[in-house]
Design brief:
The chain has 235 residues and is of the alpha/beta class. It has helices at residues 51-60, 90-106, 126-137, 209-231; strands at 15-20, 33-38, 75-80, 112-117, 141-145, 164-169, 185-190, 192-197, 203-207.
Length: 235
């Protein structure tokens, strides 16, 4: 869908935050601008379930072995918000958002401009909504997954109207059967049969709106770079 091998943009100069299960080292992260932080209190930012590594691979994986991330030159900050089982909660996400907002206050000329949250929660949460709204109001683009239940109704935070909600399509550009849909859905992007990076320095094929969200985050980084190049400021 996006010919990343023949596009001049690469995400250079754009700061992206990924709230996920951490990242595990991979040979195709060598040369990438990645910082990993742990929000869970485990004092271990490494990925044990593979989800965060797969998401990061789609965004910032370096070129090689017939694979390349969508925006390989972005500066990516990985905030580990999930335990070893891949489970997260509102408090972890809120703590990560607080950390991002504080980072941006201290680094106004190199602020994080895109946040990817490839997680979905069934229940609305007032505190999480307010914190996400604060991030959005500060100028951050927030992207999240609609959910993989194949039903009408988006998971949170994708359901919030200030969050870009990413659903999945397959290789035939048809909506994936598992992709949640309905009011608030913003984009349908590849999310079925995507090749990305695994935690054993290997490659994995993934499916799910989590990876559509990662795909949209990569595209958003390219758009942000193009805007910055043209107007000499962040959108």
């Amino acid at each position: 869908v996006l010919d990343t091998k023949n596009i001049s943009l690469d995400g250079r100069g754009v700061q992206v935050a990924v709230l996920d299960s951490g990242i595990r080292q991979h040979s195709q992260f060598n040369g990438a601008n990645i910082e990993i932080l742990d929000i869970t209190g485990q004092n271990d930012p490494l990925d044990f379930c593979g989800h965060g590594t797969a998401v990061a691979g789609i965004i910032v994986g370096q070129k090689g072995n017939d694979f390349k991330g969508i925006a390989p030159a972005v500066n990516l900050k990985s905030y580990k918000i999930a335990d070893e089982s891949g489970t997260t909660n509102n408090n972890y996400i809120i703590d990560a958002l607080d950390s991002i907002l504080e980072y941006n206050r201290q680094n106004p000329n190199a602020r994080i401009s895109i946040i990817n949250i490839s997680y979905g929660l069934e229940q609305d949460n007032y505190e999480l909504k307010n914190k996400l709204a604060e991030a959005y109001s500060s100028g951050i683009t927030i992207i999240s997954a609609t959910g993989n239940d194949g039903v009408q109704g988006l998971l949170y935070p994708a359901a919030y109207n200030f969050v870009f909600a990413a659903g999945s399509m397959d290789k035939n550009k048809q909506v994936s059967a598992f992709s949640n849909w309905g009011e608030g859905l913003d984009f349908i992007l590849p999310g079925s049969g995507l090749k990305t990076l695994g935690i054993n320095n290997d490659y994995v094929w993934v499916r799910g709106t989590s990876f559509s969200s990662a795909y949209l985050t990569g595209v958003a980084a390219l758009a942000t770079q193009a805007f910055k190049n043209k107007y000499n400021r962040l959108p």
